[in-house]
Amino acid sequence: MTHTLPALPYGIDALEPYISSQTLTFHHGKHHSAYVDKLNELVKESDLNNKSLEEILVFTFNKPSDVVLFNNAAQVWNHSFYWKCMKLKTKGKPNPDGTLAKKINEDFGSFESFLDQFKQAGMTQFGSGWAWLVLDNGNLKVTKTSNADLPLVHGQQALLTMDVWEHAYYLDYQNRRAEYINVYLDKLVDWDFVEANYLAALGN
After folding, report:
1. pTM of the model
2. 89-201: which CATH topology?
3. Which residues are documented as binding site for Mn(2+)?
4. The sheet that has 129-136: what strands, in order across it?
5. What is the distance between the alpha carbons of residues 193 and 128, in angstroms, rounded to a whole number?
6. Phi then psi for 16, rounded to 5 degrees?
7. Cβ atoms of residues 129 and 145 within 8 Å
8. What's 21-84's CATH class?
9. What residue numbers does the annotated binding site cover?
10. Sequence ranges of the domains in the chain
11. Could you report the per-residue pLDDT of 52-65, keeping only the tens digit for each?
């Protein structure tokens, strides 16, 4: 099975002025593409050559001999998911509503409390990693993972992610991670996609 670089779900300039076409050109066209190429190279001669991306992740997780393979496979999955988490707020819901909004209020107390926890996860992730909204045993939780780690291998279902590797924001925000996080949550989250993930996790 050959793994391919998925096309962006929008034009290269579709997230401007918040994420520039230059950032997407490098982030998608260079970083994400390199993970795909390396993954294909690593699995080509292995027993995992005919496995899906998710099967590779589960098989290689926490195996020291497969750490490079896991990291590249996970970054392919993480980035493919991350692109879908975004669109300009003017083209979608400004905030979650319906079933998802109700669940957020139940599990976090309020939407504002969720935002605070998500921002904190992004800001306190030391070095490279990801902030996540996940469904874990029926409950919504905010988590963070280092480097390429991801909820799938921890029995959690990802609903939303934010990339806090520096290459995700440095060309546009330099070292101002907090500004990037605020812009991401205020201007870019595709709540239609997050809600669809939540409903799918519930089996709806």
Report:
1. 0.96
2. minor pseudopilin epsh fold (3.55.40)
3. 27, 79, 163, 167
4. 139-146, 129-136, 157-163
5. 24
6. -70, 150
7. yes
8. mainly alpha
9. 27, 79, 163, 167
10. 21-84, 89-201
11. 999 999 999 999 99
